[in-house]
Amino acid sequence: MKILTHEQLEELRQFDTPTISNAIELFNIRLRTQGFMDPEIRCIIPYDKPIIGYAVTAKMSARKPPTSEQNKLLIKYYEKVKETPSPTISVIQRYRSFAYRLLLG
Q: Which ranges of 6-91 would DSSP assign to H, the alpha helix?
């Protein structure tokens, strides 16, 4: 992975997420109907200006106690966060099945 300089990161900070997303769509990496965020996505810590950094992503579920394999994967996630260049942004998608959503209304 090519690491951007601090100056390059600051240059990117002037653009909001929709603008960056629209530009990436022009690369035709995936279908434009993939990768949408639903209304559940939210920032739990408000910022005055856009944040920028290297995202480390995961999907997690808390419906059942973790297996030993899942615990190993969690440790690998933490290791990946530690070895990712700064600034690092942790992005975790809560996973739940459709049937579970129906129960919540």
A: 6-12, 17-25, 68-83
Task: List all residues 6 or more positions away from 74 whose beta carbon is below 8 Å from its beta carbon.
Answer: 66
Contact 66, 95 (CB under 8 A): no
Q: Which among 16, 91, 8 is positioned nearest to 51, based on CA atoms?
A: 16
Taking a C-beta distance cutoff of 8 angstroms, is the pair 53, 86 a contact?
A: yes
Residue with tokens 């990768």: 35
The whole-angstrom separation of Cα 50 and Cα 43 is 11
- Tokens 């390059």 locate to 8
pLDDT at 54: 92
Q: What is the pLDDT of residues 84-96, one digit of tens each?
A: 999 999 888 877 6
pTM: 0.68
50: how many CB neighbours lie within 10 A of its CB?
13
3-state secondary structure of 5: coil
